[in-house]
Amino acid sequence: GMPAMPPYWGLGFHLCRFGYKTLNRTRYIMEMNIKAGVPLDTQWNDIDYMKSNNDFTYDKDRFEGLPEFVRELHASGRHYVVIVDPAVSGSEAPGSYPPYDDGVSMDIFVKNITGGIVFGKVWNDKSSVFPDFSHPNATTYWMTQLARFHNEVPFDGAWIDMNEPSNFYDGHKDGCPPNQKEDQPPYVPSGEKLCAKTLCMSDRHYISSHYNVHNIYSQMEARATYKALVQIRRKRPFIISRATSPGQSKWSGHWSGDISSSWEDMKLSIPNILSFGMYGMPLMGADICGFNQNTTVELCARWHALGAFYPFSRNHNTDDGIDQDPVSLGELVVRSASANLDIRYKLIPYLYTLFYRSHVYGETVARPLFFEFPDDPNTYDIDEQFMWGSAFLFNPALYQGQTEVKAYVPAGLWYDAIHNEPMEVENGTYMTFPAALGDTMSILVRGGHIFPLGSSIVTTTDQRQKPVYFSAALDKDGTAQGELFWDDGDSLDTIENGKYNLYKFYTDWNLNIVFSLSRVVTGFTEQPIVDIVMVSGVPQAPTNVTMGGQSLYFEFRNKVLLVRNVDQRLDHDFEINWS
To answer: Which residues form the signal peptide (predicted)?
Structure first.
């Protein structure tokens, strides 16, 4: 199937770390970043919120008041995501831990070749057992555990980790049984045992041996989690998974796992995200500032500039690293995070529309340059730049001590996204752009595109209550076009049920059309209001701008026409003209 449509709030900024250790520390870090002006939609917690690292529990001493904290987040228009590992504790006292007791009674744990439950070891104190997500009862089991925990802590999304599945043993505590062909194939790439840090290949699932199930284990867990969240919340699920397999984007997004806080890993995150986009996994990101080892102020400032434009944008790191949220690293990182996230938030209506196209047509969201310029061989090996859709070209600074970026710009008319300055490129060429540390990344807008913008604001919930804006970047022929997808941002199956609006718009300077909007689909009753229309690349100043025969206030400077106070609800087609 096609990639899942994410909730609107899932495209905001997410904050996390392994090692907050207490709810008080979680709250303090979050509030300090909000106070500093860092846009923030979602707070996360890693396994340290749990009691004894056991799924579906929380430590009522260190995280006392967690349910109330989540409700406070909801009241502020924010959301909360928790980590959930597939393995549950296999060593709690009988009757004290329902995830184990229920699994035994429903017979849904992975078995060994003799039919006994496989006991591995993950984060739990003594032993871990693994749900068999291929079992007919597994989805009901998983839903029961998630629902029970949700009744205590009303989380909004699930972070499914360790789902390769990961195991601290190589198979079982005493290894894997001898003389099993699945465990001892004649050839293994790299020479490692197939059971290294996972289950024995001879272990049994309902449908087959682990040898045949291993590579789809995460997808089965993601599917069960998705179905559970649909039933529990009755809203669009938001799920991020560490392990993935082809087709899993129907149920979850992905992040790149435990990368290091290094310049090299920051650079490699770009081709990683672009590759997953081509695999059909558009909701993808990497841990901003890196996960393992300690980051630096310079690296984290650069990474926040880049990570603000990952399709999935989250700062997260390990429990033995320093605090690396923007405030903890100081004013420079706060400035970089705030400035670049401010642009991201303005672009979320455009980004959300790209995800609509991904869900319906299977298109990429973040994409390599050669997707848009297949006839330009210079784009084929570019992996330090990327695009959002067809309209935006991102040119990040990726090297220590860098003060400018040398970026390839394909042929066409382009505009600086911050200053709207045009640059006409006859043939593709490398150009140099300033890259001051702490400033916004170099972003170019491709002529010929109109894109919707949201308000500069700190949560997507607030943004959806404000007017939208439209910005047109004219091509050399004086035309541009674009679209906006709009629904309530969180309900299930709005596209499948026709409960959304789709607007098409275009500009044609030669026909004296500043902006024309047509409604293609009108199934959602709540219509946004457009307040401002901006057109870049206008050859000459108009003397009058009108809508429906009424004059509108406008400004004109440096070939940019700014029409203010449009105040038009998008409940009917309309056209703005100039003379």
So the answer is: none
